[in-house]
Structure formats: C-alpha cells, structure tokens
Amino acid sequence: MPFLRIAAGVLAPVMILAGAEAALAQEATRLGPDSQVERDLTAGRVHNYTIRLEAGTFVFIAVDQQGIDVVVRVIDPDGKQLDEVDSPNGRRGIEPVVLFTEADGDHGIEVRPLYEDADPGRYTIGIERLEPVAATPAGRVDQLFAAWDRPGWPGASVGIMQEGVIVYANGYGEAQLEYGVPITPETVFHVASVSKQFTVFGVILLADRGMLSLDDDIRKYLPEIHDFGPTITIRHLIHHTSGLRDQWDLLAMAGWRLDDVITRNQIMRVVERQRELNFQPGDEYLYCNTGYTLLAEIVSRVAGQPFPQFMREEVFEPLGMGRTHFHDDHEMLVSNRAYSYGFNRSGGFQNSVLSYANVGATSLFTTVGDVLRWTNNLDEGTVGGRRVIELMHQRGLLNSGDTLDYAGGLGIGDYRGLRLIGHSGGDAGFRTYVGRFPEVGLAIAVFSNIGSFNAGLMARRVADIYLEGRFSESAESVGAPAAEPAVAAAFDPAAVALDDYVGRYYSAELETAYSLVVGDDGLTAVHIRNEPIRLEPTGPDQFGGNFGQIRFERDDEGTVARMLVSSGRVRNLRFERVDW
Fold first, then answer.
1. pLDDT score at 546
2. Is domain 493-578 annotated with CATH 2.40.128.50?
3. Closest CA to 326 of 299, 291, 344
C-alpha cells in the first residue's frame, strides 16, 4: 500500500503552535499544479499551505530557501503530523518534500523558520511533479529520488540487491557539474567511513592466517606510538574503544583545513606526538578515525605491502570489484568519478574540495554495483570464509561487560523490527550509506555527492518500498523521544573578566599556538592559518565556539595557566599559557 516519507533531511522535533505563536500563523494558501509562491519569512511567523490530493498520488514539492533556514512540516487530511524535514543545507538550497499519499483530501504543508531568532529571508514553494504513484517498486524509488533527478544538480547513485542478485541500479543528477556528466550506477564515489568495514576485513584476514592477533598490543606493530601505560589492542581500534584522540579533530585544532592535502605520513606524525588518552582503553565507545588509519598501517606492515595493493589483490579482484580501490594518492586520475558539492551563499553550488591521501578510516572509491558484491560476500563468505565473516560481525565489549552495537566497521541494529547491519559515511560533500537486512536478503547502497543529502534516511525509505508488508513495526514507531533539556545554572556572561584569558597558548602535542585577544567581538582565538574564532563564555572559566569547548585552569595565585580544549572526539587537549 502507499506510504508517505520525506525525501531527505534530518528529522526535527515536533513543533506545536500554541498561544501567541498560533495567532501569527497565516491562513492556508492553496497550492495548485502550476502554482509557484514566493514569500518573505521572519522569526515567529508560520506559513500554511494546502494541496488537495487523492490517495495513491505522488507529489514532489520544492521549498527553495533564499537566506533563511526553514523547517517544513507535513500534515495529513486528519490533521496528523506525518513528518518534518530540514536538510543540513543552512539558509540556501531546496528542502525537498516527497509524498506518497494514503488518503483523499487536503494535505497541509507548514513552513517556519528553524531558529527562533532567525534573520528575515525569502523562500519559494511550488509543486514540481504530480502524478499517480508508480505501480512497481523500482518506479516508486525513481519517484523517491525525484528531487535529485534534474540537470545541473548533484545527485545520487542507488543500488539494490535481493537474494544475491542486483535488482535495481540507477543514477540521478550529475557527477561533475562543470561538464554535465550524469551519475550512473557505474559512477565512482568516495564513500568516506563506509571504508572502515573493508579495513577491518583486511585485519581479520591476517588474523585468520595467524599473522597477528586481534588482542595484540598495537605497539608490537607501531612502536612509534606513545606508551600510554594501559595496553591498546587491535580489537580496541576496531571497536572505537581505544581512547585515542580523533585525527580529524586534532588536525583541525592544529590549524589544518579538511580540504588541505592530508597524507598518511602527516596523520602519523600528529598521532605519534599524543601523550594523553580520552579515557582508559575499553572503558568507553567513542568513534575514532585514528584507530582505522592505524589498522591500515598494521595491515601494510604485517603483509609487507601497501594497504591498497593488499586489498586489491586479496579482496577486490577476487570479488570482481573492478571499479574499487583505496585512494592514497590525491593526484591519481580516476575514470568516471563523482566530485562533491555544497550550496553557496546565493543558493547555487560550489565545489567541496577533498584532497585526502590517506586510507583506512576513509578513501575507498567504489560504485554501488561493486559494493553490493561486497555485501553479498558478508552473507556468503566467498572470500575469507565463515570464520572471518563471523569475526566481522562480532560486537565490541567494554570493560564493564556491556556489549556495543558496533562490530567490525559495521553498525548492528534494527529498523522497524528487522535486523539492519550497515554504516554511513560523510566527507566533504559525499554522503553514503550501505546496509543490509540479512533476515530477508536485502542490501541497499546509496551514494550522493551533495552535502545536504541524508543517505541513511534515503536507504531506509528505499527499504520501506522493497520490504513493504514484511516489517513487524510501523514507520511511526521508529526513533526515540528527544531527551529533556538540562536546566542550566544562573550565569552572567557579561560579568566575565575577559582580560584574564588574554595570552598565547601552546600545545606541544600539536606543535601549534593560539593567541587569545579581546576586541570588539569579545574574546577571540587567533591562529596563523585560520580566521579569528569567537569564544563565548558558557560558565566560570569555560567558553564555547567552533574551536571546541574550552576550560581554563588557574595556578595557585588565581592566574590563568592553561586551556584544555575538547571537541566531540578529543578531550582536554592541553594548551599551556606562554609568554608573548
């Protein structure tokens, strides 16, 4: 039977109009097949639209943001909220709404600013496609991707395998906007962290041959890594429980841009200088790209050959993955590759540059067809055998005895009552997801080259089509309620003596320094490679900003002596205050 889904975006919390806010809502404007509405939108306003649809209708509605970030709410004829969409594209670009209707009647579309204090902006809303729901699953997938099936746009490549046979493969949009090259199932994508499962497979192949043990100390193979005291094992790296700091966060703190050329040697030099862990190995799970760069290095040293060559000979060639390789040379030419894009300030597209020359955590280049051959091997064990496949799916254990939902570069979970094993990826403008439902023999690969795309969400929407009637839970049951916000203690940012923090701060681990200065914008951190970073007081001796969360420590005389910087995957990196 038909279903309704939003084509892309991040699900946002339900917003209910109440009190004075409800009074600001506009009377509903009716949308017709040829209507195109352009309107100004300001903070606190809500614009409502209706469209009369029959059951079994497909409609694609585009909400084009022009200087304001909006969230779009969809309501069925009975007044029930069906979903909300907010793509991670900021204040520019299209919020695509795709409906497969279940009931006759007026369907509501509500447009509101995402932020309560949003600056004024404009948007347009209009119906781009209106037609009967396709009669076949493949046809409905084509409709699902209508928002990216347009010339001059980045898009996506989609592949579906059932019981070991590829039953659907298609491409939408363009792989190279500069030359109008279309995306096809043969287009080669950088798949970011989807790479990790392949890296683990290489490690486990060597373990199965007795060439290493997953419980070996990593310093057995990487003696240049600092001895932190407690042992870090290969298994810790695989399950993100090593306590090591994440390489991308460290490089960003050191002043690197992630569109710089970043090589394996550069990453290794940064990791070698680390002297503290985020936590004791095995105590916690914290996603860590560093561990996977080290895993690839271990494979290379144990196998006695470059990691990309080992994987090509041992995995890709035996599986017939002829368009797949690990990309460790940013200057290497790749035939029929996709480049990545994002929205610019005028609502058009710009390049999202990616110049990685490192492998393990990322940098697998592949196609949806090739990667589906890989997912079939994870079921069949043609390469590696059953023992290797079982170890790939072995979930991590913490020191507490708790079992993780993460195995060998694979997330182990469920969707609507069916077991779902997969992994997503995101670098620059690439957004990727590969997942499989082993109980029902379905695997799905979705690769995109636009940064506002939600590949995991779209893969689940594809599963809704191909597994219709086979789920034990409804779509509405998926997801957990949002946590209640914490109540903050009273704190007056205006009372902070910013001059206390002025000075130069140096990290020996990163060999980099920041100067903290006070100006018209308050306290800012200045680095030779970056634009000044504004730091906002958040508590006593604590500041926040896109540099991370900063906690200052004082000496016995009450003078600020150092700052400890934390980000999502780095904790308490020390910057000592030094003389100017």
1. 84
2. yes
3. 299
**Kind and range of the H or E run holding 326:** strand 325-326
Residue 443 pLDDT level (bands cut at 50, 70, 90) = very high
Q: What is the chain's mean pLDDT, rounded?
A: 92
Q: Using one digit for the tens of pLDDT, what is the confidence trace for 460-478?
A: 999 999 999 999 887 655 5
Residues linked to residue 37 through DSSP beta bridges, in sequence order: 125
Q: How far is CA 223 from CA 9, 241, 278, in A?
A: 44, 20, 20
Tokens of 176: 């190279």
Report the C-alpha gap between 269 and 509 in whole angstroms: 10
How many helices (H) and strands (E) are present in the chain, helices listed first? 11, 32
According to DSSP, the β-strands at 47-53 and 29-30 are parallel
DSSP summary character for residue 397: B
- Whether the full predicted model's pTM is greater than 0.90, yes or no, is yes
The Cα 242–Cα 231 span in angstroms is 9
Place of tokens 């080992």: 310
pLDDT of residue 344: 86
- DSSP assignment string, 280-298: -TTS-----HHHHHHHHHH
Output the pLDDT for position 477.
54
Whether the CA torsion 110, 145, 1, 466 is positive or negative: it is negative
CATH fold group of domain 1-133? Jelly Rolls (2.60.120)
Sign of CA dihedral 367, 373, 377, 383: negative
Topology of the domain comprising 189-476: Beta-lactamase (3.40.710)
Cα dist from 26 to 14, 44, 74, 91, whole Å: 19, 11, 16, 22
**Pure H helices in 85-242:** 137-144, 196-208, 234-238
Q: What pLDDT does residue 12 have?
A: 31
List the chain domain ranges: 1-133, 189-476, 493-578
Identify any residues that bridge with 106 across adjacent strands, giving them in sequence order.
Answer: 52
What per-residue confidence (pLDDT) applies to 345?
Answer: 81
- CA torsion angle for 273, 278, 280, 284 (degrees, to 10)? -140
3-state DSSP call for residue 420?
strand
- Residue 470: exposed, middle, or buried by beta-carbon count in 10 A (0-12, 13-18, 19+)? middle
